[in-house]
């Protein structure tokens, strides 16, 4: 191979290596940003699900307290119907 071509090839490879280093640095920065964003979203999702569960439990507890008086009567009706 000619010295002229070797020098040009070396320069080209050095430029490519620099571009690849820059691309790697940019991708790592973007990955870190996305990981932070994911963590924030997961925390918000957890807070939402916790609040949703508490609200759901309050609604279920309220419905259960309303059904407690009628639930026993319904159970007695089922037993009476089975006895016939």
Description of the molecule:
- The protein is mainly α.
- The protein has 1 helix and no strands.
Summary?
The chain has 84 residues and is mostly helical. Helix content is 96%, strand content 0%.
Fold topology:
Layout: H1 3-83
* Helical run tally: 1
What is the overall silhouette?
A: rod-shaped
SSE ordering: H
The overall pLDDT, averaged over residues, is 81
What kind of sheet is the major sheet?
A: none
Q: Total strand count, please?
A: 0
Low-pLDDT parts are 78-82
Taken as a percent bin, the fraction of beta residues is under 5%
- Category by helix and strand content: mainly alpha
Percent in helix = over 70%
**Termini separation:** 106 Å
Cα-based radius of gyration, to the nearest Å: 34 Å
Keywords:
single chain; 84 residues; mainly alpha; 1 helix; 96% helix; disordered C terminus
């Amino acid at each position: 191979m000619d010295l002229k071509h070797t020098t040009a090839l070396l320069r080209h490879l050095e430029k490519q290596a620099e571009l690849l280093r820059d691309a790697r640095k940019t991708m790592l920065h973007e990955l870190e940003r996305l990981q932070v964003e994911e963590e924030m979203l997961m925390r918000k999702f957890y807070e939402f699900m916790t609040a949703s569960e508490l609200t759901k439990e309050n609604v279920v507890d309220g419905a259960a307290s309303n059904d407690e008086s009628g639930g026993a009567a319904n159970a007695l009706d089922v037993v009476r119907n089975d006895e016939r």
